[in-house]
């Protein structure tokens, strides 16, 4: 699935160590894992760690990984989310084959096991409201208080549970609770809710059910039904493991999976809560779940991140037992590393400044050979049109430059990438004093970018031919939040950046970019890595900046 970020050889982490021991002891003859998302939103970058870990381990140990939708809450679930999750998992290179499942596949079995618990005196129907249950639960330092309905006899509980299933009671009127220990040190063991009454149309089962299992009840039993050997969860489920094991031990399940927790993936300058991401979408603060500023997998895919970069990132983060926050700069470093190796180069001008080469023949055009990728000679070359009039980046000219500005200025000679040496002879301004045009001369002997007499220039500029350039919209994305811990003061929205998106309407690109399909990635030389957005048309390209050329992480690493 992925290569070890530390080089070749056997991976070493505590989860793989446990699995090797289980196989060596004969506890298991094979490995079955699962990735079990709740279809209540789009997947985000944090989920990539779980996806790649579960699918990667299955592949490494010759087993298989299930994709299972834990669809136990129809109020928040939509088919749109299910389809987006499938697309995201596939994009990461993971294949569940025939092993696609839903917790809703097991609703009938889960209900039968609920009756089993009632008959065994290990579950009861409770009439307390959700607020009253919370009040009875106690605190971390004080035990809970038993519900007055806790000691109902088996027959009454069974009758009430069946009436719940048949729709005899309104939503919230009753719940089914496990009968464990109201004084347990772990609050999750203080008679947790197993079923609640909820009249909502389920995306798969429709209106067949009016009671639904809780996630805690359905999850472990679904694992057992599917003969999952190792149930890999993030650390927030560690306190739920005793309940997971209690249910498996007290039900006639066909297998006994082992839950193992690992540290979740957290990023600074980012929120990875589905509730908060939904707030951003519904509030119109972003343009949908796949907005390139969003940390969703669909968002980073639209921004131009590659699955290979995500694999590298997850490998570098590694598998640990303690939560930590990863620097977003590391993710961007992985993206740059991959794109530097794989992305073809192109030229474009974001803020055009016109250049007229006075001594270049009028009406003449030539084609210059340009290297597609200096990191991959097999990528070959392309032809770029050149003529008397062209555009350079406005920031590449200064009329009165400071000492360390080496780009174009009056009387100064620079190189045009793949083309010629040019010298600025005249500056043309409008009535407002703004520079609108540069009159230059070129040296025809420097075609290709080298001078026969060996003279050197200190700057090389990118450019676009005025007669051939394609006008485009370019979207420059930056951090969505201004602080590394958004919402730490209580209001996530107050930390939104006003500069997370800048749209340039009049960028000019070399014509080959117009032929690229949505999703194709490339580097605009000296400007950054970009990809073609799905909004693009043949007549008007739309580009998303994936990441800048500046590598903050590399600088941080170099400083130690």
Any overview of this molecule?
The chain is α/β, with parallel strands linked by helices and 560 residues long. Among the domains are: 274-344 and 475-506 and 520-558, Glutamyl-tRNA Synthetase, domain 2 (Orthogonal Bundle); 348-469, Beta Barrel (Ribosomal Protein L25, Chain P). The chain is built from 13 helices and 27 strands. It has helices spanning 14-25, 45-60, 79-91, 107-119, 130-136, 154-165, 215-225, 241-249, 274-282, 297-303, 307-317, 328-342, 552-558, and strands spanning 32-35, 64-69, 100-102, 123-126, 175-178, 193-197, 211-213, 230-234, 258-262, 265-267, 324-326, 344-346, 348-349, 352-357, 365-371, 381-387, 389-393, 413-416, 421-429, 435-443, 460-461, 463-465, 470-477, 501-509, 521-524, 528-532, 542-547. Helix 8 (241-249) links the parallel strand 8 and strand 9 (258-262). Helix 7 crosses helix 8 and helix 11 (307-317) packs across helix 12 (328-342). The longest helix is centred in the N-terminal third of the chain and has 16 residues, at 45-60. It is elongated, with a radius of gyration of 30 Å.
């Amino acid at each position: 699935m992925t290569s070890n970020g530390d080089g070749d050889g056997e991976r070493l982490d505590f989860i793989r160590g446990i699995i090797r021991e289980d196989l060596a002891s004969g506890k298991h003859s094979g490995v079955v894992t699962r990735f079990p998302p709740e279809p209540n939103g789009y997947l985000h970058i944090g989920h990539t760690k779980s996806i790649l870990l579960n699918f990667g381990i299955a592949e490494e140990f010759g087993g298989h990984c299930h994709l299972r939708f834990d669809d136990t809450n129809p109020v928040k679930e939509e088919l749109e989310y299910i389809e987006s999750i499938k697309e995201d998992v596939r994009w990461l290179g993971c294949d569940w084959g025939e092993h696609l499942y839903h917790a809703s596949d097991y609703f009938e079995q889960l209900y039968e096991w609920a009756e089993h618990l009632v008959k065994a005196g290990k579950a009861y129907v409770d009439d307390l409201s959700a607020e009253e249950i919370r009040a009875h639960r106690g605190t971390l330092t004080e035990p809970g208080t038993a519900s007055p309905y806790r000691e109902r006899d088996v027959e009454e509980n069974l009758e009430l549970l069946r009436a719940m299933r048949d729709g005899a009671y309104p939503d919230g009127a009753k719940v089914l609770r496990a009968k464990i220990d109201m004084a347990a040190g772990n609050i999750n063991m203080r008679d947790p809710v197993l079923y609640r009454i909820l009249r909502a149309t389920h995306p798969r089962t429709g209106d067949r059910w009016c009671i639904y299992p809780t996630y805690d009840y359905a999850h472990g039993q679904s694992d057992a039904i599917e003969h999952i050997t190792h149930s890999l969860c993030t650390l927030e489920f560690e306190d739920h493991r005793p309940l997971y094991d209690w249910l498996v031990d007290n039900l006639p399940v066909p297998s006994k999976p082992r839950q193992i927790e690992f540290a979740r993936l957290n990023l600074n300058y980012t929120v990875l809560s589905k509730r908060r991401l939904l707030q951003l979408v519904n509030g119109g603060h972003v343009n949908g779940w796949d907005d390139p500023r969003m940390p969703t997998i669909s968002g980073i895919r639209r921004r131009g991140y590659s699955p290979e970069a995500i694999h590298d990132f997850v490998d570098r983060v590694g598998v640990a037992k303690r939560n930590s926050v990863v620097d977003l700069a590391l993710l961007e470093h992985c993206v740059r590393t991959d794109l530097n190796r794989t992305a073809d180069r192109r030229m474009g001008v974001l803020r055009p400044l016109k250049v007229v080469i006075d001594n270049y023949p009028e009406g003449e055009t030539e084609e210059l050979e340009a290297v597609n990728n200096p990191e991959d000679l097999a990528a070959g070359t392309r032809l770029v049109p050149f003529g008397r009039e062209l555009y350079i980046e406005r920031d590449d000219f200064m009329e009165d430059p400071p000492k360390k500005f080496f780009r174009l200025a009056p009387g100064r000679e620079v190189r045009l990438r793949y083309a010629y040496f040019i010298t600025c002879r005249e500056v043309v301004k409008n009535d407002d004093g703004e520079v609108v045009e540069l009159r230059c001369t070129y040296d025809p002997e420097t075609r290709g970018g080298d001078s026969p007499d060996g003279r050197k220039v200190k700057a090389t500029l990118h450019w676009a031919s005025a007669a051939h350039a394609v006008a485009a919209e370019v979207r420059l994305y930056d951090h969505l939040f201004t602080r590394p811990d958004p919402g730490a003061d209580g209001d996530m929205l107050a930390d939104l950046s006003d500069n997370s998106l800048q749209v340039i309407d009049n960028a000019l690109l070399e014509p080959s970019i117009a032929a690229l399909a949505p999703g194709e990635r490339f580097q605009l030389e000296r400007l950054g890595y970009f990809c073609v957005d799905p909004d693009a048309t043949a007549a008007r390209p739309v580009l998303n900046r994936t990441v800048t050329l500046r590598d903050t992480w590399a600088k941080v690493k170099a400083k130690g």
